[in-house]
Specification:
The protein is of the alpha+beta class and 254 residues long. The chain is 21% helix and 37% strand. The strands form 3 sheets. The chain has a 5-stranded mixed beta sheet, covered by helices on one side. A 5-stranded mixed beta sheet has the order 6-12-11-10-9, with helices on one face.
């Protein structure tokens, strides 16, 4: 039986707990492109990182994982010296991982509505609606988050059943609206500027965006669950992008 790419990634990420080099073989070291600016290029750097992390008695929980053709995207929680929430994205060629992106945020919460950064639905359904859901979420990010069309919120999000996992927001759309309306002398506090990638499996859609948070160059990863043509659930992480002189590879965050 052929192992699904997302199961290979589950095994790879879980090996952080043990330092076992076996699952790291899924990475094609001859082609591997690393987009985490704080990690050295190639699978040797990854193996060294995992071995070092294993000595800190880490815990890794892959909460949800999905496939979109040659891409796998996973939502994870890590307990190292501190608890982090992350999204991991891998691109595959010929059954092996050849490219990697991620976005990590310190875990906080639960939010005022009682939701953590990772709880909620985990299994993709409605696979026949993947492209429709992808298009809907892409339109939301472009029209509302980037272009600022807040009057269109309810065209994309179902207010009566919306579940928000951002630790600083609530299920009430007025909370999201207020956060997106907030600004200072430099402009919008949450400033989405460019949508780089939209990955989807069934009713789950992950958007990778670039912009600024409180003026700091940042990456926004937003995971949405869609039901009956509307967004009904949202998880995210935001990570400040380190200045270029601190990068350990030259591939860029995106």
């Amino acid at each position: 039986m052929i192992q699904a790419n997302k199961d290979k990634i589950r095994a790879l990420l879980k090996s952080i707990e043990t330092g076992d080099p076996g699952p790291i073989a899924v990475v094609n070291e001859d082609k591997y492109i690393q987009h985490n600016p704080q990690t050295h290029e190639g699978s040797e750097g990854l193996a060294t990182l995992f071995e070092r992390l294993s000595k800190t008695s880490p815990r890794v929980n892959i909460v949800r994982a999905f496939e979109d053709e040659d891409f796998v995207f996973a939502h994870t929680e890590y307990d190292f010296s501190r608890r982090n929430i992350g999204f991991e994205v891998f691109r595959f060629e010929d059954g092996r991982a050849v490219e990697h992106w991620d976005n990590i945020q310190v875990r906080s919460g639960p939010n005022p509505s009682g939701h953590s950064m990772v709880d909620g639905a985990t299994e993709a359904v409605d696979h026949d609606l993947t492209e429709k859901n992808r298009a809907h979420v892409r339109a939301f990010v472009e029209a509302v988050l980037i272009a600022g069309g807040l009057e269109q919120l309810t065209e994309f999000i179902e207010p009566g059943s919306f579940i928000e996992h951002n630790p600083g927001l609530t299920d009430d759309l007025s909370s999201l609206r207020a956060a997106l309306e907030a600004s200072d002398t430099a402009g919008r506090s949450i400033d989405y500027q460019r949508l780089h990638r939209v990955l989807a499996e069934g009713n789950f859609v992950l958007c990778v965006s670039e912009g600024a948070l409180d003026g700091a160059h940042s990456a926004f990863y937003d995971l949405f669950r869609v039901d009956d043509g509307k967004i009904v659930e949202h998880w995210d992480t935001t990570e400040k992008i380190a200045p270029r002189h601190e990068w350990k590879n030259t591939n860029g965050k995106f």
